[in-house]
Design goal:
The strands form 2 sheets. Strands 1, 2, 3, 4, 5, 8, 9, 10, 11 and 12 form a 10-stranded mixed beta sheet that branches. This protein starts with a strand and ends in an 8-residue tail after the last strand. It has a domain at 5-123 and 254-396: Peroxisomal Thiolase, Chain A, domain 1 (3-Layer(aba) Sandwich). Helices cover 31% and strands 18% of the residues. The chain has helices at residues 26-39, 67-74, 92-105, 163-174, 178-198, 225-229, 267-273, 298-309, 326-336, 349-352, 359-374, and strands at 5-11, 15-16, 51-55, 83-86, 111-119, 125-126, 142-143, 256-265, 279-288, 318-321, 378-385, 389-397. By secondary structure, it is an alpha+beta fold. Helix 1 (26-39) packs across helix 2 (67-74). Helix 2 links the parallel strand 3 (51-55) and strand 4. The protein is globular and about 60 Å long.
Length: 405
């Protein structure tokens, strides 16, 4: 099988819920990524793109009717390029990258554009269709922004708790206290701000036309553990006992808007792009467990990906773990037995934001650029997924320390 490489990765700045990107349709966000990716490939004849695969977790609003296909059409690409949209909730765009890399591995494609998009600001309310016309009672609108909705009554109640309550259960199981969560969250903001200041995101982030957002909108450089400790818990009341609440708006990822994209191809794909490879996709993993413990699913997914890459955790120099919640991130880090210092060195989703369908390629692209920056060889991108799943990808750096600087 031919090897699959990442040749470039980009994303929009991530906007706050109701913030700097809220006026932009999700299909337009995705089209911005498609156009920018093509423009950054100096040797590309767009007719040679084999497939466009985008992830999206909602699909109920303006991104409906296959947002990958809509984005290619809106971007002005040839109508002969096929496109498909994948939904694995928070892992959707990482799944898109996995699908694209498999197409390259098997020889079905030389060049695939992958990515993802989410506008949580513009996610619609939906009204369930009644079984009979003109019901006498009231009907309630359901928000499609995040989490369970229109739940099947046969689903066990233990599985359908809110994501925050699920995280409280997970942190209780693994002994993750409030102080540690707040310290991890504050570090995420500090590292993200430092990475932006150092220019690490200059080659990763592409502005969205018609907006003024220049960098990730949720970063709060002044966050400290002491400041975060003053926030009220959201899903359980605070108490002195083990069942007291610890999850707050400060140690949970914010609702966000944004998009991401990456080129994945074989050696022939690199020739089409006129770009050198950044990293080789060396291993992939997917795992699942009880839905309420979704935050722990990256543990087995990453361990699978490492085995398939033929390496162990001691070989890994960089980890990009999507920070859905501080508690679940810390539980994964503890289970892997790795140092916190190699995880999300340029900040994570607690600060940057988590537009669900875009986050997987966001962490994958950041990982590739981190490896390029440091010259270190091996890295892992991992993400937890609502309803009890996790995905992971192992990257091998194929660039020198100085290339691209």
């Amino acid at each position: 099988m031919q090897q699959a490489f990442i040749y470039d990765a980009i994303r929009t700045p991530f906007g706050k819920f109701g913030g700097g990107l809220a006026t932009v349709r999700p299909d337009d966000l995705a089209a911005t990524m498609v156009r920018a990716a093509v423009e950054r490939a100096p040797g590309l004849d767009a007719d040679r793109i084999d497939e466009v695969v985008f992830g999206n977790a909602n699909g109920a609003g303006e991104e409906n009717r296959n947002v990958a296909r809509m984005a290619t059409l809106l971007a002005g690409l040839p109508t002969t390029i096929p496109g498909t949209t994948v939904n694995r909730l928070c892992g959707s765009s990482l799944d898109a990258a996995i699908i694209g890399s498999r197409q390259v591995n098997t020889g079905e494609a030389d060049l695939v554009l992958v990515g993802g998009v989410e506008s949580m600001s513009r996610a619609p309310w939906v009204l369930p269709k009644t079984e009979r016309p003109y019901p006498a009672g009231d009907l309630a609108l359901a928000s499609t922004t995040l989490g369970w909705r229109l739940v099947n009554p046969r689903m066990p109640a233990a599985w359908t708790v809110s994501l925050g309550e699920a995280t409280e259960q997970l942190r209780h199981r693994h002994g993750i206290g409030r102080d540690r969560q707040d310290a991890f969250a504050a570090a995420s903001h500090r590292l993200a701000d430092a990475a932006w200041t150092a220019g690490h995101y200059d080659n990763l982030v592409v502005p969205v036309p018609g907006t003024t957002l220049a960098r990730d909108e949720s970063i709060r450089p002044g966050s400290t553990p002491e400041v975060l400790a003053g926030l009220t818990t959201v899903f359980r009341p605070v108490s002195d006992g083990p069942d007291g609440g610890t999850v707050t708006a400060g140690n949970a990822s914010p609702l966000s808007d944004g998009a991401s994209a990456a080129w994945i191809g074989g050696e022939a794909g690199g020739a089409l792009l006129g770009l050198p490879p950044l990293a080789r996709i060396a291993g992939r993993g997917a795992a699942a467990l009880d839905p309420q413990f979704f935050g722990f699913a990256p543990v087995d997914a990453a361990n699978q990906a490492l085995r398939r890459a033929g390496i162990v955790w001691e070989d890994v120099a960089a980890v990009e773990l999507n920070e859905a919640f501080a508690a679940q991130s810390l539980a994964c880090i503890d289970a892997w037995g790795i140092e916190e210092g190699i995880v999300n060195a340029w900040g994570g989703a607690l600060a940057i934001g988590h537009p669900l369908g875009a986050s997987g390629v966001r962490i994958l692209g950041t990982l590739a650029r981190r490896l390029q920056s440091t010259g270190e060889r091996w890295g892992v991108a991992a993400i937890c997924i609502g309803v009890g799943q996790g995905l992971a990808v192992v990257l091998e750096n194929v660039t020198s320390l100085d290339q691209g600087k």
